[in-house]
Design brief:
alpha/beta, three-stranded antiparallel beta sheet, 12 helices, 12 strands, about 15% strand, globular
Length: about 425
């Protein structure tokens, strides 16, 4: 009888764990996660570790190394890739469980200050038959801790090897799930893509320079396009530094960009492929003015992260001012009607409001077009991209401003996004201008 009881208890535990794994699969297959394989990998990775009884192995350094490809000795205090991505993951989870997954009896949360996922009953829903609860005597989930450095080297190496293998399998599962879905039909509803991706003109995409952003944060200095092109800021002598502090010049030399930018590049690549157009990805530091004269251009990020935006600002009404600590301001050069002279995103804002600027302008020589996607943060840049990538949002706006002959004029618009329960679920057009 005792053996039968143990078997029944073990079977119940296994069923609970498999039900939770099935929940994770439903989450990453949802539209809330459809555009971000990296966030899906992040979620599957931490859930797999937690459900395998290895929650103690979940920490920022490990996630940065295994999920985001950082080197084993990277400095997480300087390169904080994991923290903003964890915030984005929380937002996407809320978006799923407040939308497609509203009827899920159990929801996944990621408590702030922790990277260990929590499976908790969804209030107002009865437990479903396919998601049994874990027996009350199950071992508690441990908080994240740093692995002991006193363990034998062979043991640590073995654990790390198995962990890396596990994360690789997680990534393969995510890719497999993505590839198993039917391909979304290519639409041509957005006429702007026809102008940006032509068969007779290549399109250059320039993502933001995160190394520059880190340099600015460390030195509290701003730099214009001329200074950026000279590269002198990367060789500045900053004097004595406390032991262990990274040299700002070293930060400036790093060739980093953000995950948001990479997601945008992926989306642009798919659009270019559907138009049989040539897309060329260039790092901001490698671009020269002549490169932008006879091509179409997409610039990702505000001028503080992508100085090439400065080249187009004379024609723009909504421009970003120099960033201050924990706040970013969008200037309204010529307010119309009741428009304010500026909008400020404060990082301490309880609603986590962000602003985004989308500008569709002629290239410097007038032979092509430029699309600029700016934000007061990575979430703001993502908001700009989500707007232009969503036909249901951008097409009505383009129809509203189109010329009498049906063609699309150049324009600029300002968006805001209000976070509801931590999710950026609503975009608003605050103001716009037709350029020509």
């Amino acid at each position: 009888m005792a053996v039968a009881g143990v078997r029944e208890d073990l079977s119940s535990r296994n069923a609970a764990i498999e039900a939770k794994r099935a929940l994770v699969r439903r989450v990453i297959e949802s539209t809330a996660f459809a555009k971000s394989e990296r966030l899906s990998t992040f979620l599957v990775c931490i859930c797999d570790l937690s459900l395998s009884g290895r929650a103690g192995e979940i920490n920022e350094q490990k996630i940065g190394t295994t999920v985001f490809g950082r080197p084993p000795d990277y400095d997480s205090s300087i390169d904080g890739i994991v923290r903003p991505q964890a915030s984005r993951l929380r937002q996407r989870l809320d978006l799923y469980f407040n939308g497609e997954g509203a009827d899920e009896p159990v929801r996944i949360t990621l408590p702030r200050g922790s990277y260990v996922p929590v499976f908790e009953p969804h209030s107002g829903h009865k437990p479903a038959d396919d998601l049994p609860s874990v027996p009350s005597d199950s071992p508690p989930v441990l908080p994240p801790t740093v692995l002991s450095t006193t363990a034998p080297a062979g043991h640590n190496g073995l654990r790390l090897s198995w962990f890396l293998i596990g994360v690789l399998l997680v990534a393969l599962v995510v890719v497999s799930v993505r590839n198993s879905r039917p391909s979304a039909p290519k639409t041509t509803q957005n006429p702007m893509w026809d102008l940006l991706f032509r068969t007779d003109l290549k399109t250059i995409v320039v993502p933001s320079d995160t190394g520059l952003v880190m340099w600015r944060g460390a030195t509290k200095q701003n730099i214009d396009l001329a200074g950026y092109l000279s590269g002198n800021y990367r060789a500045q002598i900053t004097g004595d530094r406390p032991t262990g502090q990274v040299d700002p010049a070293d930060l400036a030399s790093r060739r980093y960009t953000s995950i948001v930018d990479l997601d945008i590049v992926k989306g642009l690549t798919q659009i270019a492929d559907s138009h049989t157009s040539k897309l060329e990805l260039n790092y901001a530091r490698d671009v020269r003015p002549n490169d932008l004269k006879d091509t179409n251009v997409v610039l990702i990020g505000a001028a503080a992260a992508n100085p090439w935006v400065e080249l187009f600002e004379p024609k723009m009404n909504f421009v970003f001012s120099n960033a201050h600590i924990r706040q970013y301001t969008v200037l309204n050069r010529i307010p119309v009607g009741t428009e304010p002279p500026s909008w400020t995103a404060n990082y301490d804002d309880a609603q986590h409001r962000v602003y985004a600027v989308v500008a569709f302008l002629p290239n410097p020589s007038g032979t092509g077009n430029a699309l600029i996607l700016e934000g007061t943060s990575m979430a703001g840049t993502e908001c700009a991209w989500d707007f232009v990538a969503d036909d249901s949002s951008v097409v009505p706006f383009l129809k509203r401003i189109r010329r009498s002959d049906g063609s699309i004029p150049h324009f600029q618009l300002l968006l805001d996004s209000t976070n509801l329960t931590g999710s950026s679920v609503k975009r608003n057009i605050l103001a716009w201008r037709v350029i020509d």
